Amino acid sequence: MEKTTSNGTGGSAGRSDWNRRSVQDAVVIFGVAVACYACAEYFSLFDVVSRLHTAHTGWAIDDVAVVCIVLSVALAVYAWRRLQDVTQEVQARRAAEAEVGTTIERLNDARRFLDAVVENVPAVITVKELPDFKYALINRQGEKWFGIPREQILGRTAADIYPKATADVIAAHDRVLLASAEPTVFGEHTVATPHAGTRVLAVSGVPIPGADGMPQYVLNVLQDVTERKRAEARIEHLAHHDTLTDLPNRTAFNECLQGTIEKAAAEGTAFAVLCLDLDRFKEVNDIFGHAVGDGLLCEIAKRLQAVCEGAFLARLGGDEFTIICADGPQPPATEALADRILRAVEGDMEIGDQVLQAGLSIGVAIYPNDGTDSTVLLANADAALYRAKVEARGSIRFFAPEMDQRLRRKRALQHELRAAVARAELSLHYQPLASIAGEVVGFEALVRWNSPTHGTVPPTEFIPLAEESGLIISIGEWILREACREAASWPRPLRVAVNFSPVQFRHGELPALVHSVLLETGLAAGRLEVEITEGVLMDDFNRALSILRRLKNLGVRIAMDDFGTGYSSLSYLQSFPFDKIKIDQSFIANLERNPQSAAIIRAVIGLGRGLELPIVAEGVETKVQLAFLTREACDEVQGYLVGRPEPIENYSEFVGRASKPGALALAG
Fold it and tell me: What is the chain's Cα-based Rg?
């Protein structure tokens, strides 16, 4: 039987009758479960069950169990979902913390990078904080430039560090920055620094705004351009000054000359251009070396500077100096200056271990009489210099119109000489060399030039021009080939002598040329005699010596010509086995008037005898000279007494083309 509960609902004592459970109860149970789920974090299970049992006293134990099971499931579901939420929240928090850490590390890396950049920028960077303009930041370059630790800079103002004048300039710059509110370049300034002396700075700056948009800091960038400015000044100096003497160079001279011309034209005044050249400077270089030559140039420059007294002095190159004399009336002012110059270079000059004497030749051209442009003025002064060197070394010559004619002739000759070989204007004359007994032993080939414009041009005029222009290379080759070809055709095996210029030794392969010409012409090497002067050995001794040895290995004979002139050195005779020594004709010409010439000739003949070298006397023109040479046992003679330079046809009998070889009656 069913029992009736106290509230009249049927069912057993420990069970609930689900079939008879009202819908209301089910809704209540479900609602309670939902409420428990929603309020689980605020209420415990026991309290919920206790309250349900109190509210529904008619529920049996199975009803309570069902409710507990439902609540347990609900709480389990809630706990599971809550666990998920907590897990996700923890993971999100950890991810956020990791991201914040990464961001902080990136910010720290960026800060370290920026700090490193600022520290290593090769310029002074400073930041001053407003309104007191105290230094808030300074990089390593700034610390080095100030010369004091940054701890002693930060928190101080420019007035605390710099002298007042410099601090005032800095303060003015800062005020300009604040007023402009834009990056500003202040250019270059000379600043007296606390520990680095006077420096040149390129300054720029910019104000830095704060959070409110108002300037809070002032940033300055200072580049020390002192060394750059020094380098630029040095380059500028080198571009306008001679590196050896530190005098103005050709570029500076041309600029000064042009400016002086313009000023003189505007004011109607006159000035002078002086061209100076050292006498025999090349010989100093050749004998004592370039170091001594450079020392001599420096000493000359120093002495010229001392006497120029405001005149513009320049070195154009080599031993050429120029002066612009624009002060005082002309020409008296220039004459006085030239006299001072000549006196200044008089006397001995100690250059290293050498005691030298140097002379100067001076040529002068005056504006506007001798030219109104720089080219003409300089050319005319150079023409006057050339006249001074030709007529009297160590003298002064003012330009004269006839000098211009000579200069034009020189240039015309140089121009025409280039085509002289191609036009067959050059020819060879031959001068005999004879033994002291009168027998012809050979001929010296001497070049002659018959110009269609200028007529017969003497060798003393066109040979220097050929050497100066380099034409002597081609002319010398033509002389060698023509002389060898001619000598190879002589029936008698006489020697033929050819002069070689120092220029030929400096350029080209001379031994190869000689060998080629000998093979081409068929002349025996022993019949060719190469004559050189001391200048060949002076130019480049080692190179010349090598060439001479190679020529001698070919079988060619080598003669020292013009021995006794210039700076004759016995070491040359010791260094190379010459085949012959030729005494310069200047000693022979003075033989009858100067006892010293006789002594020199006697000494050279004795030297040749000791070295077992034949001695040839050049320029023998009188029987008295021949008699002296005969008494001194000179080996060979050459000169007008023996025979003049003439076409070889005039000496046919001596080369064996006549029926009977002739002899020279020297003793008669």
Answer: 55
Residue span(s) of the chain under CATH 3.30.450.20 come to 121-230
- Summarize pLDDT for 484-531 with one digit per residue, the tens: 999 999 999 999 999 999 888 887 689 999 999 999 999 999 999 999
Tokens of 150: 């940054």
- Closest C-alpha to 74, from 28, 26, 34, 25: 34
C-alpha 618: how far from its chain's center? 49
Residues counted in the chain: 668
CA dihedral 391, 396, 401, 402 (to 10 degrees): 0
Q: Can you say how many angstroms the Cα of residue 174 is from the centroid of all Cα atoms in its chain? A: 42
How far, rounded to the nearest angstrom, does the alpha carbon of residue 265 sit from its chain's CA centroid?
37
Pair 203, 158: CB distance under 8 Å: no
Residues of the chain with CATH 3.20.20.450: 413-655
Mention every residue, 6+ apart, whose C-beta is less than 8 A from residue 202.
Answer: 187, 188, 222, 223, 225
Full DSSP string of 204-259: EEEEEE-TTSSEEEEEEEEEE-HHHHHHHHHHHHHHHB-TTT--B-HHHHHHHHHH
- Helix, strand, or coil (residue 586): helix
Contact between residue 256 and residue 324 where contact means Cβ atoms under 8 Å apart: yes
Architecture field, domain 121-230: 2-Layer Sandwich (3.30)
DSSP assignment, residue 615?
Answer: E
How far apart are alpha carbons 451 and 137 in whole angstroms? 86
| Distance separating alpha carbons of residues 441 and 496, to the nearest angstrom | 9
Q: Do you find a cis peptide bond into 163, omega within 30 degrees of 0?
A: no
Per-residue tokens: 223: 């580049």
- CATH architecture of the domain covering 413-655: Alpha-Beta Barrel (3.20)
Specify which of 7-16, 190-199, 480-489 reaches the highest per-range mean pLDDT. 480-489
Q: Are strands 528-532 and 557-563 parallel, antiparallel or unpaired?
A: parallel
Residue 651 CA to residue 440 CA, distance in Å, equals 10
Question: Which residues are CB-neighbours of 635 under 8 A, at least 6 positions away?
Answer: 435, 436, 608, 614, 615, 616
**CATH 3.30.70.270 domain residues, the chain:** 241-399
| C-alpha dihedral (314, 315, 319, 321), degrees to nearest 10 | -20
Residue 445: what residue type?
Answer: A
Which strands make up the sheet holding 184-193, listed edge to edge?
A: 134-138, 124-129, 215-224, 197-209, 184-193
Q: How confident is the model at residue 195 (pLDDT cuts 50, 70, 90)?
A: low
* Residue among 348, 291, 340 nearest 313 (CA): 340
d(CA 260, CA 267): 10
- At residue 352, what are phi and psi to the nearest 5 degrees? 65, -125
CATH topology of domain 241-399: Alpha-Beta Plaits (3.30.70)
Backbone angles phi, psi at 216, to 5 degrees: -115, -30
**Residue 468: how many other CB atoms lie within 10 Å:** 12
Q: What share of residues in the chain are helix, strand, coil (percent, to 5)?
A: 50, 20, 30
Q: Please check whether residue 294 is in contact with residue 318, taking contact to mean a CB–CB distance below 8 angstroms.
A: no
For residues 632 and 334, give the distance between their C-alpha atoms in angstroms, rounded to a whole number: 53
How far from each other are the two terminal CA atoms of the chain, in whole angstroms?
196
The distance of Cα 326 from the centroid of its chain, to the nearest Å, equals: 33
Tens digit of each residue's pLDDT (9 = 90 or more) over 380-416: 998 889 888 877 778 899 988 776 677 777 778 888 8
Question: Distance (Å, rounded) from C-alpha 494 to C-alpha 478?
Answer: 20
Contact 245, 301 (CB under 8 A): yes
